[in-house]
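Project outcomes to date are best conveyed with an example. Our students and postdoctoral researchers have been running inverse folding experiments weekly, and each run begins with a structure described purely in tokens. The record below, which covers 149 residues, was selected by the lab manager from last quarter's runs and is presented without edits.
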């Protein structure tokens, strides 16, 4: 009569293999969910920062220099940029920053309506969020649209 021990051992080996495969899949799911959670957190914070910049720019009627003075960052005459570290605090050195907010003026093609596009990028170049913003511009004394940069 033959022993049934090898059959029982084979059955246990298959069960361990199935368990190991299921455990590996669960670990991958947890890692992916952690990455997704961090990306969503960064995207949510990026949207808040973009909204803050948009509200300040609208409140100042598109005066980029005044917005730069209020929020920080740099205005080079064509673009306003703010760099942030990992904790979303303004960073002194843009090359070591984790996130970059860029505000670019756009032509609204409507008289007395200013516009800009706000984009926030991660340091690896991944676009996190874009936000268009528009505001009412003030007419100058001569009826011309005031130029705010």
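After processing, the design step wrote out the following sequence:
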């Amino acid at each position: 009569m033959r022993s049934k021990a090898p059959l029982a051992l084979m059955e246990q080996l298959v069960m361990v293999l199935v368990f190991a495969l299921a455990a590996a899949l669960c670990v991958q799911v947890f890692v992916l969910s952690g990455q997704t959670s961090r990306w969503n957190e960064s995207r949510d914070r990026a949207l808040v920062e973009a909204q803050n910049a948009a509200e300040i720019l609208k409140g100042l009627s598109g005066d980029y220099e005044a917005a730069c003075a209020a929020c920080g960052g740099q205005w080079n005459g064509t673009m306003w940029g703010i760099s942030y570290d990992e904790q979303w605090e303004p960073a002194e050195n843009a090359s070591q920053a984790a996130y970059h907010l860029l505000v670019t003026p756009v032509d609204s093609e409507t008289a007395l309506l200013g516009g800009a596009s706000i984009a926030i990028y991660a340091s690896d170049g991944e676009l996190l969020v874009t936000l268009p913003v528009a505001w009412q511009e003030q007419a100058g004394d001569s009826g011309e649209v005031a130029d705010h940069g």
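The radius of gyration is 27 Å. Residues 5-59 form the longest helix (55 residues). The training component of this project remains on track.
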